């Protein structure tokens, strides 16, 4: 890999904001395109960006995505793509982050809300996004906040 490509890759990996941009992009995608993206696998750089954005460890990311630390490390080293299941889980995190940004009208408030324990949920919204049921509950709380409820 030449030096310029290596530097570009490092810049993309180190930017947590690329994760935010990606979330907003997929939020606007038609469902069929979003499904194709997930089936094809998403770049591991989005995973690294998520970790940097939230300031969470690779171990926490591996739990959220249901894959081992070793698999994440291998995919980062090879600049590979995540599999469909991991891609869907990462896309779910990005989509809910984007939804939270719309509700709070602030990426900082949305991130803080995602990371802090929530009384209505019993733990942080981010920690519940490893399952569909957890994601559904997080979305319900966001909807409640958006429409004037307390959560």
TrEMBL record:
One of its GO terms (molecular function) is DNA binding. Residues 100-148 form the Antitoxin Xre/MbcA/ParS-like toxin-binding domain. It comes from the Bacteria. Residues 34-94 form the Antitoxin Xre-like helix-turn-helix domain. InterPro entries: Antitox_Xre, Xre-like_HTH, Xre/MbcA/ParS-like_toxin-bd. Pfam families: Xre-like-HTH, Xre_MbcA_ParS_C. NCBIfam families: TAS_TIGR02293. This is Uncharacterized protein. It comes from Nitrosomonas europaea (strain ATCC 19718 / CIP 103999 / KCTC 2705 / NBRC 14298). The lineage of its organism: Bacteria, Pseudomonadati, Pseudomonadota, Betaproteobacteria, Nitrosomonadales.
